[in-house]
């Protein structure tokens, strides 16, 4: 399903994760990330992958939803809402005060879905990322 999501997001060429990496990340003694699966009639309909964050302003953990994906044939069936509700429930149960994520600016169906949930866009924040060569160059800098 990760590959399906990457195809949907026009970024299949960026997928590098292996099954072994996922297994280690999700099922070790202290997982680095967590996943939830939505099923419909015994078939996997969608998933969400998330990890903990920490807010220095609020002084508590939050949840960052890295991915939410529902297979096309299952969209509109409430699976995305159920997955989001599960994450919101985790936040409420554990006293976490933020549930955050990013969405591609062209993904109108998802933007509409999130807007209907009452989510607030954080347009004043610009998202940055270092990967590959720029990340290695920064790590090697000694100035």
From TrEMBL:
<protein>
    <submittedName>
        <fullName>Acetyltransferase (GNAT) family protein</fullName>
    </submittedName>
</protein>
<feature type="domain" description="N-acetyltransferase">
    <location>
        <begin position="1"/>
        <end position="140"/>
    </location>
</feature>
<comment type="similarity">
    <text>Belongs to the acetyltransferase family.</text>
</comment>
<dbReference type="InterPro" id="IPR051016">
    <property type="entry name" value="Diverse_Substrate_AcTransf"/>
</dbReference>
<keyword id="KW-0808">Transferase</keyword>
<dbReference type="InterPro" id="IPR000182">
    <property type="entry name" value="GNAT_dom"/>
</dbReference>
<dbReference type="InterPro" id="IPR016181">
    <property type="entry name" value="Acyl_CoA_acyltransferase"/>
</dbReference>
<dbReference type="GO" id="GO:0008080">
    <property type="term" value="F:N-acetyltransferase activity"/>
</dbReference>
<dbReference type="Pfam" id="PF00583">
    <property type="entry name" value="Acetyltransf_1"/>
</dbReference>
<keyword id="KW-0012">Acyltransferase</keyword>
